[in-house]
Each structure stands twice: as structure tokens, then as C-alpha cells.
Fold this protein.
Amino acid sequence: MAHVLIIGASKGIGLETTRQALEGGHQVRALARSAAAIGLSNPSLEKVRGDALVKKDIEAALDGIDVVIQTLGISLGDLFRPVSLFSDATRTLVGAMESQGPKRLICVTGFGAGDSRESISCLQRVPFQLVFGRAYDDKSVQERLIKSSSLDWTIARPGVLTGGKRTGLYKILDKPSQWRNGMISRADAAEFLVRQIDDRSFVGGTPVLVY
Ligand SMILES: NC(=O)c1ccc[n+]([C@@H]2O[C@H](COP(=O)([O-])OP(=O)(O)OC[C@H]3O[C@@H](n4cnc5c(N)ncnc54)[C@H](OP(=O)(O)O)[C@@H]3O)[C@@H](O)[C@H]2O)c1
């Protein structure tokens, strides 16, 4: 059983990660600006209203934590404005973890971030850049901050997210030659994240997750 902080826990992958980490017997601190609205109730769940961009919120949330899972996301409308949430929040988080612990960080970015950008097919490259370019440029900075930290990190890069069920049947593509786009449910992406709490085989890895 680990004490896990999930940053971005109120929706999407973060909410699903919260649910599955609780099922796995972990003690979960779920942070989001709308944490109070998390529709889960469990004695092992602590809902913490906080902003990933506010240093004191993050420093306080790290107290007593063994593992951090960062699953921040932005709205569709935000895709068409300058994006700095991912890098700003990660700069704050990495700084706080390096000075006060813990060392283990599991983070979601996405296929197309960092060096996986080169694996986007020719046909998808232009539309990807037009729609997701700002967000993924910032996710690439986020990945660089994590990779250059002294933390024990894993960066998970899911393909296109769906609302489908948890199947456990996704592929974990950890070699650049295997990287490709595809679909994966938020529930399966969350399963991978929760598995990393106890599994160190992907420390220092940037796997792409798709069916
Ligand atoms: N959509 C896709 O196909 C796709 C593909 C690959 C990767 N991804 C990535 O996967 C990640 C998760 O996406 P998702 O759709 O599952 O999640 P989402 O619905 O976008 O949820 C984002 C979470 O981040 C939290 N958040 C945002 N700003 C915050 C802040 N300043 N402080 C604290 N919490 C904050 C939100 O909570 P509050 O608003 O309550 O704070 C929410 O819990 C994203 O990074 C996304 O880019 C998406």
C-alpha cells in the first residue's frame, strides 16, 4: 500500500486513476481545483482542493506521499490559446519533489510529445500541429523538465483517449521504432499508471500506450 498523490484527479484519466488506485488498496490524495466534486467516497480517499500552479498547494499536498501521478489536462478551447499549464505545473512539482520528496513521479503526456513527435505519420502531422501544436509543444517542455530532474520518473504517452472500459489489453510500446498512434481508453491508461506505483520496470521510460 502506497500513499499516492494524484494531481488532476477530478476528471478523465485522473479520476479513473483515483478509482483504480483505491481499488488497488492505496491511500489516495486527489488534488484538483474542483476536488470537492469528485463523486467517490472511500475512507482511503482524501479530496484536496488545490491548484497545480500554486507552489504552496503542491508543497502541502506532497506531505507524507510516496508516489505522485500527474494527469493534468486542458479544455478543448484552451487548445487554441497559448498553453503553459503543463510546463509551469511541472516546474513547480519537480522543484518541490526534489527538495522535499518523494522521488517517484508518474506523468501523462501523450503520443506526439517530445521525441515521439517524429513518429506521427505524414498524413497526421499537419492536422496534429494545427490542433494540438500549442499543447504538445508545452508537453514537450514538460517532458524535458521531468527527464532532466533527479526523480525516478515514468512518462506515459497514451494515444487518442476514449471513454471505453478497462480491458488490460493495451500495448506498451517502449521502443521508438514501435511508436505509433492509436486509441486507448482512459480506464486502460489509468490501469497502466496505477501499475507503475509498485512496478519500477518503466522508471526512466516514455512508453506509448495504444491498442
Ligand atoms: N484527449 C485525448 O485524446 C488525449 C490523448 C493523449 C493524451 N491526452 C492527455 O491526457 C491527459 C488527461 O486528459 P483527460 O481528458 O483524461 O483529462 P481532463 O478531463 O482534461 O482532466 C484534466 C484534469 O486536470 C485538472 N486540472 C487542470 N488544471 C488544473 C490546475 N491548475 N490545478 C489542478 N488541477 C488541474 C482538472 O481538474 P480541475 O479543473 O478541477 O482543476 C482535471 O481533473 C491530458 O494531459 C491530455 O492532454 C489526451
